[in-house]
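Re: Re: C-alpha cell formats

Sure, here are both.
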Amino acid sequence: MIEHCLFFGRAISVAAPAGIVIWLFANLNINGVSILNYIANFLNPFASLMGLDGYILAAFILALPANEIVLPIILMSYMSGSNLVQIEDLANISNILISNGWTILTAINVMLFSLMHFPCSTTLISIKKETGSWKWAILSFIIPTVCGILICMITTGIYNLIV
C-alpha cells in the first residue's frame, strides 16, 4: 500500500507541472503564433519521415508525464484550443483527425509509436528508484523510442512504395 502511495505521489509531482507547461505552450503567443505551433512546425520534417505530423510528435513529447493525454493534446492542437479536450462522439474525433490530414498510414503509425515509445516519466522515475541507477531509466527511454521511430519509418517507407 505504501508503495502505491509513493507511486501516485511521484505521478502528481510530475503531472501537475507538465499540465502547466502544456497550457503555457498552447496559450503563450509569439507574433500571434502559439509556442505549441512553433514546436509542431519545428518537429514536422522529422515527424513526416515517421508518417506523422509535428503536432502528433509534440503530443507524444508533451505527454511524457502521462501517456494517456497524447490524443487530447493532438485534438487540442488541431482545434487550436487552449484546453485539453474530451470528445465523446467518435465521429467528431474522426472528422477532426481526417480534416487535419490523417490517413490510414497516420493512424497505423500513431498506434505503432504508442506501443513502441518511452514509458511515462513516473515509470522512468520508478525504474531509477528500483535499480538505483539512471542508466536503466535512460535505456528504458531510448531503446523503445528508437525502435518505435525506426518501425514507423520502415512502415512509412513500405507504404510509400506500395501506394
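Second one below.
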Amino acid sequence: MLFNDSLQLQHESRIQTDFDDKKDMFSDFFVDNNGNFVFTKGNKSSTKDFIQDLSLITKQPLEDTFRLNTLNLSGNLLDEIKLKIDNLNQHYIINSLFYTKRRGNVEGIYTAVWDINNKNVISQLFQNLGDSVRSVAKTNGNNKTALNDYFIRDIILKKDGGFILTAEDFYSQSRGTPWNRYDYLYGYPSFSPYNYYMYSPYSYGYYPYGGFGGYPFYNSMGEQRYYYNNILVLSMDRTGKPDWASVIQKSQYDDQTDNFLSYVIMLTGGQMHFLFNMLERRTQLLTDQSVSGTGKITRNPPLKGLDRGYQFMPRYGKQVSASQIIIPCIYRNYICFAKVEFP
C-alpha cells in the first residue's frame, strides 16, 4: 500500500512471489521519493553458500507487478547485500563484500549503481582491496584473511553521487562452538543477521544477557563472547572506486551481550564522529574519533559531563539534528537516554 505524506492511500497491490527460505535472500525493502518500491533478491546454491545470483527488483507506484533486473556477477560470490537509495542523484547503490571462490577469503567490495530514470546499470565494479589497506585493517593473522571478519555497517551518501562505506571487524565465540561466518550469515534463522528481529533492539537488545528473560539463547550455546574491533572507512566515487581508506583502531569485547559494543556515527561540521565505548582504567568511557573528508583521523578529547554509573549503548544511537544525537544507556538496571551535543 502506497501512501502520500498526508497518509492518503495512492495505490494498493497484492503480488504473489516465490521464495525458498533455504536459498533465496531478500535485502531490506525501500521506497524512494518517487514512490518506487525496491529491494534485491539473492540466490544461493545451498544453505551455507554465498550469493551466486543477484537481481534488483523494482515496482513503480501504479504498477501491480515486479520488474526483475538481473545483475551479472561474472562468477563472483557475494556476502550480505546493502542497498541504498540516492534520491538526489536518482541512483540505487548496491554494495557487498565479494569472494572469487567458495570458502575463500574476502577479496574486496562489490558495487553496482542503478540509474532510476533510465532503468539500467551505469556502473558495476569488483574492487580488490590491496595489502596497504589489509595490513592496517587486520587485527591478527595475515593479509589474505584480514577482511574475513568484516561486515558492512553503514553507507553514507555524498552530493556528487559517491558515498562513504564503513565496515566493522566482528566475530563471536561460544564454548564448544567456534566462530563460523557461514553459520552466522546463513545458518539457523534466529542467529542470522538477515532475520529482522536480530537487527531490532526491541527483540533482544535490552535483555541484559543476550537472551529472553536474561537467559542465553537456547541455553545450549553456553557462554558467548562478542568481539568488535577495527572500523574500515572507505570513500568511494560515483562508480565505486575508492578515493581513500582509513582504519579506526579499536578493540572491544563482552560476554553474553553486545549491547555496549560497536559504534554510532554522528555527522556534523564536515566530520564523521565515531562514538564507541573504550575501557579506560577499568571504566567504559564513551570516546569520540572523527574522520575528515580527506580521511584524516582525529582522536578527540573525552566527552564532557559523563556521569559515573551510566553504561552507554552507542550502537542504538540516533542523530536527531545537525548537532545532537540521542544514545540509550543503562543506569542501575533502568533504561534512560542521553542527549549528546556537538558545538
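The radius of gyration is 21 Å. The first helix runs from residue 131 to 137.
- S.
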